[in-house]
Amino acid sequence: MTFTIKPVKIALDMMKKRKPIIVQQIDKNGGKKMLNNRVSVIEVLGEESRKTGAFTRGNVLEPYPAECIAAAAEDAGFEVEVIQIGASSDEEIVARIIGFNPFCVGMTTFTYSVAHAQKLAKMITSALPNVIVVAGGYHPSLSPETVLEESEIDFCVIGEGEITFCELLSETMSDQNWAKIKGIAYKIDGKTIITEPRERVRDLDILPWAKRSECYLKAAGHFGPAYPSLDHQVAVAEVSCSRGCHGVCTFCVSSVMMNDRHGIKPGSECSVTLRSPQNVAKEMRHLLSTFGVNLCYLTDLTFNHSVKRVKAICQALIDEGLHFGNEMDSVHTSDNMHWYCLAKVGIDEETANLMALAGCSKLGMGVETFTEAQAVAYGKTWRGIDQVRNSLLALDRAGIITRALMVLGAPNESEETVDEIIRGLCQNPVDQVRVSFLTPFPGTRIAGMLDDSEIIEKDWSQWDTDHPVVRCKLSKDELVAARARIGREFYGSPEYKERCCRKIERFPWLRESYRWWADYLHTSKVADIREAIV
Ligand code: B12
């Protein structure tokens, strides 16, 4: 039996410089045998991604997008490892990849980590000159040109990645006719080729469950007033019930990535795709029984895009027995699944009570501002501050911890508008605030509304919503000081202390959560509410 070695002669600018890779043997009868089917997928986020704050990042979670991609590639017959960089050095990461010796390395890339991804690609391809490097996620989908520019990254996968990535891997094994793969970008003779948009997966149940690692689930944590509190979080997982969003908020990436880049009209019916509630409940059951996961972060951008849908998911979780019994039972938090979700303004008491019954213990609401004019400018759908207040009240009365997601740094931002945010937080039942700086990510509507002179931060590694980027009436330092003032004056306010005290009286099982939170606020020198948490 003789073998013909079929090298991967990929006619890409980059590849010319690199020796072809041997991936397949073809015997004389044309029978194919894979020599190397190993794929590494890295979440390119550094040590900073594990730093949390009382009014900034509140979660350290598993590399979920990479795990979704890995599960699909595994289903397609590839051997896949998922790498979360965490505290490891780039040298350690590269050494690990050399050890695994994949033919392809995939990278989840945010705008603030694109330079890091390009640096890693350079290090990896100089160690493994014939490896193929593929970037996916937010920034490669928004601006593939800037990812491929002067970098060793060969391909960008645009938008939803499972199907596209598997086709790309398989094409590497066969004719390497890249142009026929929808939803990718690559460079030929210095020119970036972007192929036809990929259709979105209509029924998300066809996709495999994310490829989980116990170590990433156990290392994950939800900081802030949470139930279970950090000390009682056995393991934390991300779960998607849907993808996309009907909203067209000017600063949000999702509408660009999940609609425009897939040829879908923003706000149209098919901009949101769904998993069946039973599929979600089964996966949560699997996470609880297999890894002891007792807190889930639902990644849906707008969990409450349809009340009917919320009720169906809650019923499925209750039917699956994922949340039962009395909250005061000592084993309640380890035997039950609790979850955090993201929602838009507009939740009534009946829905909030059902969500609490189904295990929802905390919710992040996209309030963004307490000024209706600014809400309209951001493309938010809520109208009248009462709608915000009533939604937060409904959640509060159901015992759900409320987290207000606020945006700071709009062009008209001033000390007066900052005062308005603080007043809004003190006057409405908000238990935690997340302040993000307005960041005009490439391709977003807001990016099209601002001219270059209004961008005060050109270094993309600062584009993580934790650093001021847009010019306004306050300087960068004044904006950072304003964010700290929001935290200090809100959490230090008599209204807030009273609120925490009243929340524990009504929902005594939250005492431990607020005790943890009071210590956290104290150690991070934001406010001292410990006397309120007796
Ligand atoms: C859940 C979430 C988080 C979670 C978990 C993030 C995580 N594990 O990746 C937490 C709270 C930790 C988080 C943190 C941050 N986030 Co966040 N987050 C989201 C959110 C709400 C949903 C993302 C999600 O998980 N979707 C579900 C998964 C399955 O879909 P996906 O991520 O899109 O992945 C698909 C594709 O992107 C692609 N893909 C992804 N990776 C790869 C890799 C390869 C090789 C391939 C081929 C394809 C591919 O295929 C995947 C499956 O189809 C989005 C909002 C949004 N608009 O999407 C913001 C969002 C992603 N976050 C954003 C930001 C800025 C951040 C932070 C920097 C904020 C901060 N300063 O703390 C940090 C950075 C991450 C970190 N750990 O520090 C921005 C990113 C914008 C950008 N251009 O970079 C977004 C878009 C929100 C926004 N402002 O518009 N985030």
Keywords for this entry:
6-stranded parallel beta sheet; Rossmann fold; 7-stranded mixed beta sheet; disordered N terminus; alpha/beta; 37% helix; 534 residues; single chain
Account of the protein in words:
- This protein has 534 residues and is an alpha/beta fold.
- The chain is 37% helix and 18% strand.
- It is built from 20 helices and 20 strands.
- Strand 17 (338-343), helix 13 and strand 18 (360-368) form a beta-alpha-beta unit.
- The longest helix has 16 residues, at 476-491.
- Residues 41, 45, 49, 57, 59, 61, 63-66, 68-69, 106-108, 110-112, 134, 136-139, 142, 157, 160-162, 165, 238, 240, 252-254, 299, 301, 441, 464-466 line the site of cobalamin.
CATH class designation of the largest domain: Alpha Beta
User: Order of strands across the widest beta sheet?
Assistant: 6-4-7-8-9-10-11
- Estimated helix fraction: 25-40%
Q: What is the typical, i.e. mean, pLDDT?
A: 92
For the record, the CATH architecture of the largest domain stands as: Alpha-Beta Horseshoe
How would you briefly describe this protein structure?
With 534 residues, the protein is α/β, with parallel strands linked by helices. The chain has helices at residues 13-16, 64-75, 90-100, 114-127, 138-142, 144-148, 162-173, 214-219, 254-259, 277-291, 307-319, 332-335, 349-357, 372-377, 385-397, 415-427, 445-449, 476-491, 494-506, 511-523; strands at 3-7, 22-27, 32-34, 38-44, 59-60, 79-84, 104-109, 132-136, 155-157, 184-188, 191-194, 221-222, 236-239, 242-243, 273-274, 295-298, 338-343, 360-368, 401-408, 432-437. It is 37% helix and 18% strand.
